[in-house]
Write a structure and sequence with these properties.
Layout: H1 2-16, H2 21-28, E1 50-51, E2 55-56, E3 116-124, E4 139-143, E5 146-148, E6 150-154, E7 160-167, H3 172-181, E8 194-201, E9 203-212, H4 217-224, E10 247-248, E11 251-252, H5 278-289, E12 297-304, H6 315-324, E13 328-333, H7 342-345, H8 359-366, E14 370-372, H9 376-391, E15 394-399, E16 410-416, E17 422-424, E18 428-429
Parallel strand pairs: 7-8, 7-12, 12-13, 13-14
Antiparallel strand pairs: 1-2, 3-15, 3-17, 4-5, 4-16, 6-15, 8-9, 10-11, 16-18
């Protein structure tokens, strides 16, 4: 009975004094403590930032921000600095690394009033596979035997401007394989690429200017580029079979073999020389490529056996034009040049004779690759293979220490600090007035 009266009196007291309710409630029920509130700290240099060469959270030894850290996070004074033995400290400042997908558009300021050099590089392992995952610290670039610090490093894929050069002086059996493989060219390209088509036999011929790689124009042009090729006959310049044995109205069916004419007399004949104007065809394609805008890979893709004879332009003249205008030559060697063993022997030039395979020299000097294929399936696969190599390259950039007004050839040597890798890059370049714009 007394307990009930006490409860009634307490209720009446609380109702008459509302200011005492919060205090009394706090005494009766203590609040549950909340979890600690996260303390956001600004991401500043040396504290949480990813410093090149050090990693996330690491700091240089002379950082002044370490004194502001809590005691449990400070590095003990007795800790030793990390060892720098074997570390390449030539380039302490990292190069410009564009955001993935932006290419080098954000770094075009390097080509304004400076001598900026761009070097596409392909890296393969001992099995011929492309090597990915390299960083700028794995590369060393030398110009005229002097190492240059990198100012640009990018792994973005570039759109391609490809000028296809098709040899029509091939033999009929090889030409048939090339004709059947032309339909696979479009499948190796993307909508961002553009293509021009050239052909050559006795002189270069432009089949079409640059058009979209996935346009309906390209298959039509490639279909019109197909030819029957030449017949492999045994030349005879003496004896009873040397003259013309096929007559039409008393004259030889082929005026080049008419006795007494340019081919010779009745007892002998002068064998006509072979004509393979490869130099002229590459030069015509390079002139068309030199008009393409910056930010695209300039590629000449040659489908040929590599023979050269009868061109007006020399190899040195064409190579200088390629190295001045940043054009790389890729190719698929067919015919005799693709035969095992003979393909390497054909690269040796005998003086006063026709060049049997000059295509390999173009690819080595400009940073391209040459694939040798004899079968139809291999020729078709080489299109996609080489297009992939040209598109996914490492792009290195540096500022040349040579004077801008110096127009002499500048040698380039690119090295990778990993064993067993093949580095493919252009051997040098000639400076151009376009680089200083």
């Amino acid at each position: 009975m007394k307990l009930g009266l006490t409860v009634i009196a307490l209720a009446a007291l609380l109702s008459s004094s509302p200011n005492l309710t919060p205090a009394l409630a706090q005494q009766q029920q203590s609040p549950v403590p909340d979890a600690p509130t996260p303390q956001a700290r600004p991401l500043i240099s040396g504290e949480g930032a990813i410093t090149p060469g050090l990693g996330a959270g690491d700091e240089p030894a002379a950082s002044s921000s370490s004194s502001t850290l809590p005691a449990q996070q400070q590095v003990p004074s007795s800790s030793q600095a990390p060892s720098t033995e074997g570390k390449d400290d030539f380039q302490n400042t990292p190069p410009e690394i564009p955001t993935a997908g932006e290419g080098v558009a954000a770094t075009t300021r390097f080509v304004v009033n400076v001598n900026f050099v761009e070097v596409p590089v392909t890296v393969k392992d001992n099995k011929g596979k492309l090597v990915a995952g390299l960083t700028f610290r794995d590369f060393k670039v030398f110009e005229n035997d002097a190492r240059e610090p990198l100012r640009l490093f990018s792994t973005d894929a570039f759109p391609l401007s490809i000028a296809f050069v098709i040899d029509q002086s091939l033999t009929s059996d090889v030409m048939a394989k090339v004709n059947n493989s032309l339909g696979a060219i479009q499948g190796a390209l993307t909508p961002y690429d553009e293509v021009a088509v050239f052909s050559y036999n006795n002189g270069a011929q432009e089949r079409t200017g640059f058009t979209g790689a996935q346009s309906t124009r390209l298959p039509a042009v490639l279909a019109l580029t197909k030819e029957t090729g030449s017949e492999m006959l045994v030349p005879m310049n003496s004896g009873p079979l040397a003259g013309c044995n096929v007559h039409v109205n008393g004259n030889c069916a082929d005026v080049n073999l008419q006795p007494g004419r340019s081919a010779g007399g009745g007892s002998f004949m002068t064998i006509p020389k072979e004509i393979h104007t490869l130099n002229d065809a590459i030069l015509a394609a390079a002139k068309e490529l030199s008009t393409r805008p910056k930010g695209r890979r300039r590629i000449i893709y040659v489908i040929s056996d590599g023979k050269e004879a009868g061109s007006k332009a020399t190899y040195k003249e064409v190579l200088r034009y390629l190295q001045t205008n940043k054009v790389a030559v890729y190719g698929t060697a067919v015919g005799d040049s693709a035969r095992w063993g003979e393909g390497y022997i054909s690269r040796i030039h005998v003086p006063f004779t026709m060049y049997e395979n000059i295509l390999a020299r173009y690819t080595l000097a400009t940073g391209g690759t040459l694939d040798s294929e004899r079968g139809l399936n291999g020729i078709e696969k080489s299109y996609a293979k080489i297009a992939e190599e040209a598109r996914t390259q490492y792009t290195l950039g540096y500022l040349s220490h040579q004077p801008v007004i110096d127009g002499r050839f500048r040698k380039i040597d690119v090295r990778v600090d990993r064993p067993g890798l093949e580095v493919i890059a252009k051997t040098g370049y000639y400076p151009s007035a376009q680089d200083a714009r």
